[in-house]
Write a structure and sequence with these properties.
The chain has about 160 residues and is of the alpha/beta class. The chain has one domain: HUPs (Rossmann fold). The chain is about 45% helix and about 20% strand. It is globular, with a radius of gyration of 15 Å. Bound molecules: adenosine-5'-diphosphate. The site of adenosine-5'-diphosphate (ADP) has 16 residues, from helix 1 and strand 4.
Length: about 160
């Protein structure tokens, strides 16, 4: 059983994230998408809301589950028996940060391999910050996020 973990903030999940999960679910037996509780980030949605949106938008993939954790990704990966960490690479701008993280995680646990996947090019400019900003100013985000996220964004803006 080859299990991998895909950690992130997912505030909120976008079609870019889902593209990466779909690719990972084709390659591995099991994919666990994990909402990382990051105290240094101020999020729009709570950990529970982000996990719920992930669960709902990934339910078409039978070998994918979503959860959350508080602590180091390498510790959670070990606890659930994952052999690799999935991360998405959109552009060169992602590279430096992702490279540092991958090397640090490898230093912390030499048995864990970070695997980078590229989304379809139509998602390379997409990130959660753009979605939050667009939604705040009532921009149309229907092409970028699943239905459940649209509902949560509407609720947040009190409409
Ligand atoms: P983090 O704060 O950990 O970067 P994100 O939720 O922003 O969390 O992203 C989680 C992972 O998904 C990262 O590896 C990021 O590069 C990747 N990612 C984010 N948006 C996209 C996208 N549009 N296409 C592909 N990968 C993406």
């Amino acid at each position: 059983m080859k299990k991998v973990i895909y950690p992130g903030t997912f505030d909120p999940v976008t079609f870019g994230h889902i593209d990466i999960v779909e690719r990972a679910s084709d390659l591995f037996d099991e994919v666990v998408v994990t909402v990382a509780k990051n105290p240094s980030k101020t999020c729009m949605f709570s950990v529970d809301e982000r996990t719920l949106m992930l669960k709902e938008s990934l339910k078409h993939l039978p070998n994918v589950t979503a959860d959350s954790f508080d602590g180091l990704v390498v510790d959670h990966a070990k606890a659930i028996g994952a052999l690799g960490i999935i991360r998405g690479l959109r552009a060169v701008s992602d590279f430096e940060y992702e490279f540092q993280m991958a090397l640090m995680n490898r230093k912390l646990n030499g048995e864990l391999t970070t695997i980078f996947l590229m989304p379809h090019e139509k998602y390379t400019y997409l990130n959660s910050t753009i979605i939050r900003n667009l939604a705040q100013f009532k921009g149309d985000v229907t092409d970028f996020v699943p239905e459940v996220v649209l509902e949560f964004l509407k609720k947040k803006s009190g409409k």
